[in-house]
Specification:
Elements (H helix, E strand, L loop, with lengths): L1 E4 L2 E6 L4 H11 L5 E4 L3 H9 L7 H7 L1 H21 L5 H12 L3 E4 L4 H11 L2 H16 L1 H7 L13 H14 L1 H25 L5 E6 L3 H24 L1
Parallel strand pairs: 2-5, 3-4, 3-5
Antiparallel strand pairs: 1-2
Helix pairs in contact: 1-5, 3-4, 4-6, 6-10, 9-10, 10-11
């Protein structure tokens, strides 16, 4: 799914969908001036090196036990799903990076440092959310069909980006069940990325910008960027008028 706003095209992707790789290739073939991706330096280095995650004491001290466990489980789950469809997790982001470099298009990393995000997750997630998380993991393993039926997922194609209705339903489910985790993993990162994208737009008027982000972030990001633009106009008009 792609949303156009002024000189910005915001593309929502699935990290294990071949469809997303093809859509990224088609979008970059149109030669935007700037390609922005939902990555930070550590995650980009990880995608390039394809190193397996190893438990290090330093990592646990840096991001907290909860953040580390979440990262390991998340990486395992994405790798497992990716193996089903034959796509490495994050392949569409890596494709965007490589194509931008190959075409000499300016590349911008717009996501918050993953270590900050995981550290904040360790600090703010509640015991109730932790217990709920492991309970939900067990349900997904042992009662997969029942859980899919409950969420209304009858025919889910991993090779394609999920429908907007399903994405919103899953996001709503996460916000309800894990309010603090949702705040850290979604809301705070959306604010960070919106600020980065808005700054890039302001510094590059008239230049076409392609921002590649995970599906589910697009609408909130557009709303935040539009609000920042409106607030800047109000501030400018007030200053001139005064």
């Amino acid at each position: 799914m792609a949303i156009k706003y002024n000189n910005l095209t915001l593309m929502g992707t699935s990290h294990i969908a071949r469809q997303s790789i093809n859509e990224v290739k088609a979008a970059i073939a149109k030669k935007p001036h700037i390609v922005a991706v939902e990555l930070d330096k550590p995650r980009l280095q990880g995608l390039k090196s394809r190193k397996t995650t190893k438990i290090r004491v330093m990592d646990i001290f840096r991001i907290g036990v909860t953040g580390f466990v979440f990262a390991v489980i998340g990486a395992w789950a994405q790798k497992k799903l990716g193996s089903i469809v034959g796509v490495d997790p994050g392949a569409e982001m890596l494709a965007a990076v490589k194509l931008a470099n190959r075409s000499k298009i300016r590349l911008e990393l717009i996501d918050q440092d993953i270590r900050i995000t995981l550290n904040r997750l360790s600090r703010f997630i509640t015991l109730k959310e932790k217990l709920r998380f492991f309970y939900d993991v067990l349900k997904a393993i042992f009662f997969r069909k029942r859980e899919m039926k409950r969420l209304g997922i009858n025919d889910f194609d991993l090779s394609k980006v999920p429908q907007e209705e399903l994405i919103q339903k899953l996001m709503s489910e996460m916000k309800k069940s894990y309010p603090n985790a949702y705040k850290v993993l979604v809301e705070e990162r959306n604010m960070f990325m919106a600020r980065r994208i808005f700054a890039i737009m302001q510094q590059n008027p008239g230049k076409e910008i392609l921002a590649v982000v995970g599906a589910g972030h697009e609408k909130e990001l557009i709303a935040m960027i539009a609000e920042k633009e409106d607030m800047e106009k109000v501030t400018y008009e007030f200053t001139v008028g005064g």
